[in-house]
What we know:
- The protein has 361 residues and is an alpha/beta fold.
- Helices cover 53% and strands 11% of the residues.
- Helix 10 (304-331) packs antiparallel against helix 11.
- Bound molecules: guanosine-5'-diphosphate-alpha-D-mannose and manganese (II) ion (MN).
- Residues 15-17, 19, 46-48, 76-78, 81, 98-100, 102, 165, 167, 186-187, 216-218 line the site of guanosine-5'-diphosphate-alpha-D-mannose.
Amino acid sequence: MPAEGAKPKVSVIVPTYNERENLEELFRRVSEALSGAGYGFEIIVVDDDSPDRTWEYAMELGKEYPVKVIRRRNEKGLSSAVIRGFNEASGEVLVVMDADLQHPPEKIPELVEAIEKGADVAIASRYVPGGEVKNWYWYRKLISKGAIMLGRLALPKIRNVKDPMSGFFALRREVVEGVELNPIGFKILMEILVKGRYKKVVEVPFTFGLRRAGESKLGGKTMVAYLKHVYRLMHWSGELDRLIKFSIVGTSGVFVNEGFLWLFVSWLGMSKYIANIPATELAILNNFTWNDLWTFRDLRTAPLWRRLLTFHIAALMGVVVQWLVYAPLVYLGMNYLLANLFGIGASFTVRFMFNRNVTWG
Ligand code: GDD
Ligand code: MN
């Protein structure tokens, strides 16, 4: 950051593919917003050799605005374009935005101010109070929010971020400098939030507007690509290892449960109806111990009694969820053993997520 009082230089990175018709208005509004607020800036267009020659038009507009144009002939992809933009940028604050004016350029100064006030990452967010999405059907919103919820649960590092899928954000260059970002995929912000070096994230509400001209490139296959991305990041951050360890511990619990049940009934002559209860409790304690010493060893911050308590709550939640999935499926005519498998799957997921985020959160 520059000396006290001086405003940082801002690099606005705009990935483009067939956005010629949007460029002029975009450049004008970015320029007005940033000059108006007293910032020095540059616009970096990273174009993947668009058939409509966006790159050419961007260079032409460069006579009027401080534009740097990268025309990539051999590479494609939104994330890799943004990463390329980072490498070309000379500003202290890097802003990423779409070219199609769904991201209002007038928001940029607010994002940069948030950085100046101490945030490392400032996200223009659709999902904090005051933010919204224009013209989306309810199911589109539902899918978007569901996907975000899943990502937040699977990746604890981003669990406090309301809109980790936003394509409009600002960051201090140190956040990504020297960080190896994966160029596959299109949720570059999520990638940065998992791998970047930062402390403070701020979300600024904005309205995700309508595309001015041209059409969206991120259609149908994006959901699968998103899930793959979440999976890769889980792997990278070690969360996948935890999931595997948690499953192994869970399996060991089945043996402990069966073993003690057998012991209580055939050795101690306990009632079969009662023996199940202490056997289950012992299995829970077994699982707790191994998860505490192994799966979540590095995350033991809450006091032991609290970890034990919330682990039991998770177990109880698991039972309830299992039944809530099982019963309706059976009612709908599904084979009861198959229905129970779905129930077990749901219970497992809920227990893992709860324990990961609460017991060892
Ligand atoms: N260089 C390059 N290469 N640019 C691309 C590519 C590519 O392969 N694909 C898309 N772009 C550019 C577009 O030209 C546009 O400027 C921007 O990236 C966003 O593309 P859109 O096609 O308009 O995306 P969207 O509106 O469906 O999705 C936006 O909103 C999502 C949230 O709902 C993006 O901002 C996403 O990142 C965001 O998650
Ligand atoms: Mn768009």
